[in-house]
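Hello support,

Our group uses your service weekly, and this is the first time we've seen a run hang past the timeout. The protein is Histidine--tRNA ligase. I'm not sure whether the cause is the sequence or the server load. Input pasted verbatim:
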Amino acid sequence: MNFRVPRGTVDLMPGEVEKWQFVEEKAREWCRRYHFFEVRTPLFEQTELFRRGVGETTDIVEKEMYTFEDRGGRSLTLRPEGTAGVVRSFVEKKVYGDPQPTKWYYIGPMYRYERPQAGRQRQFHQFGVEVFGTKEPLLDAEVIDLGYQFYRSLGLKGIRVELNSVGCPDCRPVHREQLVAFLSPRREELCKDCQSRLDRNPMRILDCKNETCQAITEQAPRMVDHLCEDCSPHFEAVKEGLDALRVPYVLNTRLVRGLDYYTQTAFEYIVDGVSGSIGGGGRYNGLVQEVGGPDMPGIGFGLGLERVMLALEHQGVELPLSNEVDCFLVTLGDEAQKRSLSLLQELRQGDCSAERDVQGRKMKAQMKAADRMNARLVAILGEEELLNNQIVVKELATGNQETIQLDKLVEYVRDKRNHG
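Update from on-call engineer: The timeout came from a worker crash unrelated to the input. Re-ran successfully.
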């Protein structure tokens, strides 16, 4: 039987993995600058967490979750997004009792059963941040800026933010009433999902990707026209904050995001060369309380790393990766080969990457192997060098070589790597 990778998943091979490591390290670097700390939550949670947190009328909960029953009869779900699990951890560990705000980030795989396509897989990866404990609108702008700076630092061009306010429980009822009145006469023209949403959560219709539904809602009542006395100044302050940070944004009054927990600020990142968003987020002031904690506000984002990789590819961005070996040991004779083992250890303990021939090949073949590995230096050790406690070191790029004392090899290689 020939086994293949499951549909909607991919193998990340050497050569590709290094790109992911670079991107992930950039994410960690920017989180350090903004004083965020990493949190790691389980890959699966109780199914009810996502039903309550993400929302039962969302496509994620209705169609896309990987749910299973364990041997104890408990319903568990592979996490389809990161925020609900992070909020559960925040509540369970009673972190809300600590001085606030709490600033966390995560990087890891998520799972949704959807049609695989470029930049979207059934196992996908997200970099996300969450901030708990403050309603300050300028923090919204700061969080948006963090994602924007992350994208820019990778070399992406044409990044912009689509921005909206989805209001709060105080101002949504008026908008909901007008939205239902606007859509009800055309109920039969809506897709089946949106016919159901019209009764349960009509705002979700604005997020539908069906072209007919999009056309019907083109002139639908806008949430931004019904914001309450708290949400309206909050939204204005967020925009002022983005202006101060020089983050480019456009208003998208149809933007509601794909999860029910959002309140007030909602945003997505768009980049030249890739259709759809490459990440997004928003404020979720009721979610902590929804999963059993106190009434405490929160805001965050989730950025799809597969989407980032697709954008880098489409824009032709070359990441500054290096797969060089600092030193390749070429050995001539049995005694030199034995001595090379401890030399390798010394180099590696001295913070140098080092490799040797393990195929018993002749010197010419060993030199070719060093070239294939992009070795910066080749250190040649033969019987005569061993007798004199010396080694010949050659720079492959220039062809220059010199003989040095064997006990100076680590220092020599390190100096060449650091100073050329």
